[in-house]
């Protein structure tokens, strides 16, 4: 477990986490949230409660194995709830917790920004590929 950062926080009995510290537990949660499948899964679940296969179709390209691993990690971090109903066949749904919804809202704001600014990103990539970046790739200065 990570150690509290700062004497003031320790004196008050409050943990303060620093994702830049190697052993801080917030680092693994950040990785779960910001990884390709974690961020897309949280974004998809912000739209609706979904069953596994619905979620897999919404997060195009994710394998069953990766989605299952992602959901387990997000559930362990308290971001997702797995609701299994004892029916035949079993009915399992996934939804966000309050923490997961707050996290997804912030991720979706970032996703909106990236989508909105893609023309700028594509222009920068073209400039890089035809300018200095292409020369650096060939070992030229």
Automatic annotation (TrEMBL):
Report whether DNA-binding shows up as a keyword of the record.
yes
| The keyword Transcription regulation belongs to this UniProt entry's keyword annotation | yes
Gene3D superfamilies, A to Z: Winged helix-like DNA-binding domain superfamily/Winged helix DNA-binding domain (1.10.10.10)
Q: Which SUPFAM superfamilies match?
A: Winged helix' DNA-binding domain (SSF46785)
According to the entry, every stretch annotated as the HTH hxlR-type domain falls at 24-122
Kindly provide the name given to this protein in its UniProt entry.
Transcriptional regulator, HxlR family
Q: Name one GO molecular function term.
A: DNA binding
Top-rank taxon: Bacteria
User: Which keywords does this chain's UniProt record carry?
Assistant: DNA-binding, Transcription, Transcription regulation
Recorded source organism is Actinacidiphila paucisporea
Cite the InterPro entries for this sequence: HTH_HxlR (IPR002577), WH-like_DNA-bd_sf (IPR036388), WH_DNA-bd_sf (IPR036390)
Query: Pfam families annotated for this entry?
Result: HxlR (PF01638)
């Amino acid at each position: 477990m990570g150690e509290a950062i700062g004497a003031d926080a320790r004196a008050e009995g409050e943990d303060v986490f620093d994702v830049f510290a190697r052993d801080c537990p917030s680092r693994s949660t950040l990785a779960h949230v910001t990884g390709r499948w974690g961020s897309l899964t949280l974004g998809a679940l912000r739209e609706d409660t979904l069953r596994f296969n619905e979620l897999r179709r919404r997060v195009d390209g994710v394998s069953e194995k990766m989605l299952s691993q992602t959901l387990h990690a997000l559930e362990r971090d308290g971001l997702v709830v797995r609701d299994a109903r004892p029916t035949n066949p079993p009915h399992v749904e996934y939804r966000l917790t309050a923490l997961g919804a707050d996290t997804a809202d912030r991720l979706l704001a970032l996703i909106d920004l990236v989508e909105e600014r893609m023309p700028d990103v594509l222009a920068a990539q073209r400039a890089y590929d035809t300018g200095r970046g292409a020369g650096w790739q060939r070992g030229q200065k």
